[in-house]
Write a structure and sequence with these properties.
Order of helices and strands: HHEEHEEEEHEEEEEHEHEHEEH
Largest sheet: 8 strands, mixed
CATH superfamily of the largest domain: Fructose-1,6-Bisphosphatase, subunit A, domain 1
Bound molecules: 2,5-anhydro-1,6-di-O-phosphono-D-mannitol, magnesium ion
Distance between the termini: 54 Å
Low-confidence stretches: none
Radius of gyration: 19 Å
Number of domains: 2
Strand content: 15-25%
Number of helices: 8
CATH topology of the largest domain: Fructose-1,6-Bisphosphatase, Chain A, domain 1
Structural class: alpha+beta
């Protein structure tokens, strides 16, 4: 039997609190709230097949996409967990049109953190029992604690992130996060409801052999991406590479980080900014990728340095093993 690591996520969060100068424990409490909410969402995702929660909720989110019932539920669970515990002063969610201010009557108003969240990413996979995920990102507010939270607290560059992570509801449920000191992964023991440190110091292999992209959109891709795909498929050296695309960013990213690979969601003729959202999806994944030795760009620019202008802004996304992303960038440059 494999040896079990008995360090729990709860213990790990407390241990790491000392890494932060003048820590008040506020970030630890915030991470603990996310940990708890993820267990509740995990429970709901796991019974998706039997409960009456598969399918569409009948309304559309701000991007005009149909919301799945579980999207709505996961959104509520995270917002409840974070607001009830008074650990953040504001939350922006991919599922909500605008950011939420946590009510001024409670202590949350004094909190120095805001959270941005994609509560259930890849939700079209739920109906078919394929892995989905939660992505979160934490910033220190730029406005004064005690005053109403403002849009500028959320529209920060990714380099300002204090912490970021994801939960993957897969064949096992894992939470993977960084506070800027590397990336650690914890696996949920469902019988105990406890996350254990299972993947310490996760690192992207420098190079890889997996490319993940929705090739169904090939004809609409920029020429640089088309050429890179042909490069991946060419029989030469360590190529052809293998194509793997789950259609669930968290899962594709997680696999690529462990095995080595690149994920691309480029611009297309119809969507010049791609599909993925800078604040809810790309920045947190970019922070994790860089902390794990990988690389993340929009094909030309470092994702973490892009100045956001709106909450639901989209951006083309190239993310993964450093050498693979650099090669893809070369192809983009050639066609600029
Ligand atoms: P969502 O936030 O609406 O779930 O969309 C994000 C998802 C990513 O997880 C996934 O990689 C991508 O959209 C798949 O898009 P497509 O079906 O266009 O390939
Ligand atoms: Mg999403």
């Amino acid at each position: 039997m494999a040896e079990q690591n008995f360090q729990t996520l709860g213990e790990f969060i407390i241990d790491k609190q000392e890494d932060f100068q003048y820590s008040t424990g506020e970030l630890s409490r915030l991470l603990s709230a996310i940990r708890l909410a993820s267990k509740v969402v995990n429970r709901e995702v796991n019974k998706a097949g039997i409960a009456n929660i598969i399918g569409k909720a009948g309304n559309e989110n701000i991007q005009g996409e149909e919301q799945q019932k579980l999207d709505v539920l996961a959104n509520e669970i995270f917002i409840e967990a974070l607001s009830q515990r008074e650990v953040v002063c504001g939350i922006a969610s991919e599922e909500n049109d605008d950011f939420i201010e946590i009510h001024a009557s409670c202590n949350a108003h004094l909190s120095k953190y805001v959270v941005l969240i994609d509560p259930l990413d890849g939700s079209s996979n739920i109906d078919v029992n394929v892995s989905v995920g939660t992505i979160f990102s934490i910033y220190r507010r730029v406005t004064e604690p005690g005053t109403p939270v403002a849009l500028e607290d959320f529209l920060q560059k990714g380099i300002n992130q204090i912490a970021a992570g994801y939960v993957v509801y897969g064949s096992s449920t894992m939470i993977v996060y960084t506070t800027g000191n590397g990336v650690n992964g914890f696996t949920l023991d469902p019988s105990l409801g406890t996350y254990y440190l299972s993947h310490p110091s996760m690192k992207f292999p420098e190079n890889g052999k997996i490319y993940s992209i929705n090739e169904g959109n090939y004809s609409k891709f920029p020429q640089g991406v088309k050429n890179y795909i042909k490069y991946c498929q060419l029989e030469e050296g360590d190529r052809p590479y293998t194509s793997r695309y789950i259609g669930s960013l968290v899962s594709d990213f997680h696999r690529n980080m462990i095995k080595g690979g690149i994920y691309i969601y480029p611009s297309t003729a119809q969507s010049p900014h791609g599909k993925l959202r800078l604040l809810y999806e790309c920045n947190p994944m970019a922070f994790l990728a860089e902390q794990a030795g990988g690389k993340c760009t929009d094909g030309y620019r470092r994702i973490l340095e892009i100045e956001p202008t709106e909450l639901h802004q989209r951006v083309p996304f190239f993310c993964g093993s450093r050498k693979m992303v650099e090669k893809a960038e070369e192809f983009m440059q050639q066609q600029k």
